[in-house]
Amino acid sequence: MKIAVLGGDGFVGWPTALHLSDAGHDIHILDNLSRRWIDTELGVQSLTPMDSIQERTRIWHAETGRRIHFKLIDLARDYELLKNWLAEHRPDAIVHFAEQRAAPYSMKSDRHKNYTVNNNVNATHNLLNALVELELDAHLVHLGTMGVYGYSTIGAAIPEGYLAVGIETMGGDTVSQEILYPSNPGSVYHMTKCLDQLLFQFYAKNDGLRITDLHQGIVWGTHTEQTRRHPQLINRFDYDGDYGTVLNRFLIQAAIDYPLTVHGTGGQTRAFIHIQDSVRCIELALNNPPARGNRVEIFNQMTETHRVRDLAGMIARMTGAKIAWLPNPRKEAAENELVVHNEKFLALGLNPVRLEDGLLSEIVDVAKKFAYRVDRSRVPAVSAWTKDIAPLINHDPEGKRLKSVS
Ligand code: USQ
Fold this sequence. Notes:
seven-stranded parallel β-sheet; 12 helices; binds sulfoquinovose-uridine-C1,5'-diphosphate; NAD-dependent dehydratase
């Protein structure tokens, strides 16, 4: 297939582009390189040394003989460029990662909230709009988030996108319907993914677009089969307080002898998936498109759930790291249960990589190898969800003003 990978320079986009190229597809990356600009804005860099996208694709070609094409486009702003590109190339499928994906970054200031909404919602809408205008029947696979469901504990498992409800009619009967699971975002970033869901629902219904939405959990790990092939194909690895996600942050913190930064009681339960499974799921989704006229296909792209404090405890036992119990910069439930249906990918043959498979220590090794590149002052998460929370944030989890390290 000819596949456009929008946001193909990012943390999941890059290994996906390699994985799909390796599988024989003709890959075209469209990206505005915003993630690299945000690194510059925040004054941080990936733990792993990353080459330019042009250099990365050159190395891939030298290693495999396969070409990955790159086009610099800002999907949120350059509608005409996007439309012209789609008209010229007419891809069979499109994988859409081209959104600002960090919840803390989306909550940093009013400017960051505006940027995240404008960027994410416009990028998605521009794409859908162009597909309709060009009568292009490409299968659209979008990277959504488990966070659309929210983290309230209701004692029931989260279904894959749709909830069966009974509605009482005026005549007193009960009619059954399947509706999008009520969205309950926990950040401006997560809210944009909820808005995306409505855009997809409308365009699938109105124009018969073929859309798959992947509700992905927190990705951990860094390598995939293809990124291992050459040092310059390495994936990015974020450890800073805005872009670093919890498990990868704990692993790098353990590697540099920094206390593990647990927010609040660490009672938050979240869904996780290894980066290798993430790229496999995307391929499975591409191979199983919905029929034209069908509703949006939704998969829960996660393989296991864990409580934050259990992860911290496990890594502390594995590495001897200390745990810092910090005031939570986010407005979120202190404790929650989370049970998730993910049978659809398992039925399509996904054989998940588990935390217990020993890969955690491998990542500590990656972290140790590049530890010299870490700026310890960028480890604390200081982006506060509300003005009330901001004064409580601990900017120094290493100890001087810390109440409790165990
Ligand atoms: N947390 C800590 N300590 C840290 C960092 C995070 O205790 O040092 C806690 C947070 O308070 C939160 C949980 O860990 O309760 C998860 O935080 P995260 O930063 O790992 O994940 P999140 O902000 O939810 O976002 C990430 C990705 C996002 C994706 C989402 C999937 O950045 O793109 O959509 O995971 S999910 O969480 O399932 O919605």
